[in-house]
């Protein structure tokens, strides 16, 4: 049975350390479930720079082979990134245990990731291997994706998307007329209005995709 874990790791031990260095306002968030391994092309939302500067900055990063701008909404840019073969112990260990990244965001030089492991044994192997390879890893939570009290949405939404949609619903963001602004919702969650908007949009898209794809 699969298991989920919340972990954090310094950017210089994962990806995009050079892009993030010296730019405190820059925010990068993983767009979707992305298998981690050779040849994987992740999609990332970048907030804090216009599209042209985002592309140039990423191109100068030693972890990036090439980058393409896919879309931009409000103050955020969606990019597709092709990694170089630069080696990272953390990433190599994830690949070795066949883990996948469900969600992730980088803040203040640290990646905060939600990871799915095939089993608790693979999670234990991953943790031990990180320790052996001197990876600066912090595990803040471990849970069963089917048993955390969220029924069918547990495997559909990330924790951040779930919390954002739940708070938005409870505070009247979806009411007519609306009872809370996007800025006020962001303040409640401790994030920017742009980040709140992105989480709502991506969370709703995941729920709709899951519902519309269901035979029922």
Automatic annotation (TrEMBL):
<dbReference type="Pfam" id="PF04967">
    <property type="entry name" value="HTH_10"/>
</dbReference>
<dbReference type="InterPro" id="IPR007050">
    <property type="entry name" value="HTH_bacterioopsin"/>
</dbReference>
<dbReference type="Pfam" id="PF15915">
    <property type="entry name" value="BAT"/>
</dbReference>
<keyword id="KW-0805">Transcription regulation</keyword>
<protein>
    <recommendedName>
        <fullName>Bacterio-opsin activator</fullName>
    </recommendedName>
</protein>
<feature type="domain" description="Bacterioopsin transcriptional activator GAF and HTH associated">
    <location>
        <begin position="19"/>
        <end position="133"/>
    </location>
</feature>
<keyword id="KW-0804">Transcription</keyword>
<feature type="domain" description="HTH bat-type">
    <location>
        <begin position="157"/>
        <end position="208"/>
    </location>
</feature>
<dbReference type="InterPro" id="IPR036388">
    <property type="entry name" value="WH-like_DNA-bd_sf"/>
</dbReference>
<dbReference type="InterPro" id="IPR031803">
    <property type="entry name" value="BAT_GAF/HTH-assoc"/>
</dbReference>
């Amino acid at each position: 049975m699969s298991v989920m874990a919340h972990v954090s790791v310094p950017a210089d031990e994962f990806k995009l350390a050079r892009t993030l260095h010296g730019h405190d306002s820059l925010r990068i968030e993983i767009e979707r479930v992305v298998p981690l391994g050779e040849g994987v092309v992740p999609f990332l939302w970048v907030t804090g720079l216009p599209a042209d500067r985002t592309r140039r900055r990423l191109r100068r990063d030693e972890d990036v082979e090439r980058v393409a701008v896919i879309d931009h909404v409000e103050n955020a840019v969606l990019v597709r990134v092709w990694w170089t073969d630069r080696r990272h112990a953390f990433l190599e260990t994830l690949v070795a245990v066949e883990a996948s990244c469900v969600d992730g965001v980088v803040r203040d030089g640290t990646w905060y990731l939600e990871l799915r492991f095939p089993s608790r044994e693979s999670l234990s192997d991953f943790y031990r291997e990180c320790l052996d390879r001197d990876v600066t890893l912090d595990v803040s939570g471990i849970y069963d994706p089917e048993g955390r009290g969220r029924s069918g949405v547990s495997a559909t939404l990330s924790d951040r998307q779930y919390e954002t949609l739940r708070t938005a619903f409870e505070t009247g963001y979806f009411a007519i007329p609306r009872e809370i602004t996007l800025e006020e919702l962001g303040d409640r969650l401790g994030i920017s209005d742009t980040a709140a908007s992105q989480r709502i949009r991506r969370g709703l898209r995941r729920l709709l995709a899951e519902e519309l794809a269901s035979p029922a």
